[in-house]
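Q: Can someone sanity-check these two? First one:
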Amino acid sequence: MLEDLEGIVMANENAELSHVDPEGRPRMVNVGEKPLTRRRAVAAGLVTMRPETLKLALGGGGPKGPVIDVARLAGITAAKRTADLVPLCHPLPLDQVDVEIASAGENALEVRAVAEATWRTGVEMEAFTAVVAAAMTLIDMLKAVDREMTITDVRLLEKSGGRSQDWSRGDS
């Protein structure tokens, strides 16, 4: 296993696997000495569906109630529980999580989440968790009318704060 990790590191000379100790074992990074800074991350993903399913979701209905409202709440709640889901994530005090869900063409909804905190580590995982939980909730609430929905294109759009440079995806 360590040989595999060394190959990954060698592929990018500047890369360091911060969550792996010198023996190749998983570890939680010590962030205790890092300064508090304002952190922000934006992630997004798509839920594809039949056009009639999209119309139902956008109309506020569905077999289980107000689909988009419930999915937004699921995303916000999930972001607050990220450290419970991702083993090496630090629990952190989120200042804000916002989840927006909007039409993305005739057969998809885009889920976009913004997570913000003033803390010692980034909030990318919280933004990802919000997107995926909201997308899963959309599927759960609409599966009675469309079993072929998919979650696709989950990606980080931008991040800021901390020691590393601010970053933005070119296609966001």
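And here is the second, same format, sequence then tokens:
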Amino acid sequence: MNKLEEARSQINRLDAELARLFEERMAAVEQVIAYKAEHNLPIFDAERERQVLEKNLGLLQNEQLQPYFRQFLQGFMDISKDYQRAILQGNTVAFAGAEGAFAFQAAKELFPTYRYHSCADFESVFQEVLAGRAAFGVIPFENSYTGEVGEVFDLLFKHNCYIQAICDLPVRQNLLALPGAKLAGVQKVYSHPQALSQCAAFLQEYALQPVAYANTALAAQFVAESQNPALAAIASAESAELYGLQVLAANINSSSQNTTRFIVIGQSLNQAGSRFNLLFTVNHNAGQLARVMSLIGDMGFNMESIKSRPLKSLPWQYYFYVEIEGCLADEAAQNLLQKLKSSCHSLKILGSYDLKQLTK
């Protein structure tokens, strides 16, 4: 037996031991689940997670392995939380719309082993998560062509939910109609306002009347049920298969790089990640916003995005959204938050995450 075979043999032996220890650890997690269920405790406990990381990192003798061991431990704890959700929340992911919607596609890719719950609108997705009936919600956040989904920013401002992940999904819009229908005979096209806007050039070219609908997939379902060849929908090719429609024209979005950014919301605030985002308001004084922006830059942080939205209760006043590069758990980020608290009228941490690229 050469040295490579000896090393592999040792790894096989250690993997077998890890499998035994993994089962033993998950058995202990089941006891935690039972206690949390009995006492109505949340799945995520940030302080407990921090203590576990610090304690176990201190057991490591080889300091060079510390970042890898941290990742290993974090993976264990993430698996534990997933297992708890599977039992306490039924591993359910909520999304707005029907099967075939782009949010549904994103949910399937992000959570392939979960159950999926369709909601009528974005508000309902938030309510499912807040009520504990869904572990996560998947919601469109902004589009590379049409910009942000303002309603979602307002819901994040309103509700006590946190962003768990942000991911980009390439979006290919298609014109769908009943089998046998002809493009020349189509008069009205139904879809979500964002989809209609993304395909405005195509609609204008063929003099098609856009009609706003709650969701792309629901629009496809409506056209299928109408049995009217003069009606069409803008939706995914998956929606065509689901509702028995044909694709009259494929990839009709004005931009070939059309991408929708989705957020995953949940009840817990994660600390790990390479980005974090904030919502804040400032006192209505001259230069106050500029001072906050300067503070973020002066403390060495790069802002990838800043957006403003009107406050519904105060005319001509706004709240602001910023996305910042950095890890929320780092001391520098915590120092920044302390500084911002004294400079902002209100400050809300939205989440900490890594940006993911979806493939479909």
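A (reply): Looked at the second one. The first strand starts at residue 92 and ends at 96. The chain is about 40% helix and 25% strand.
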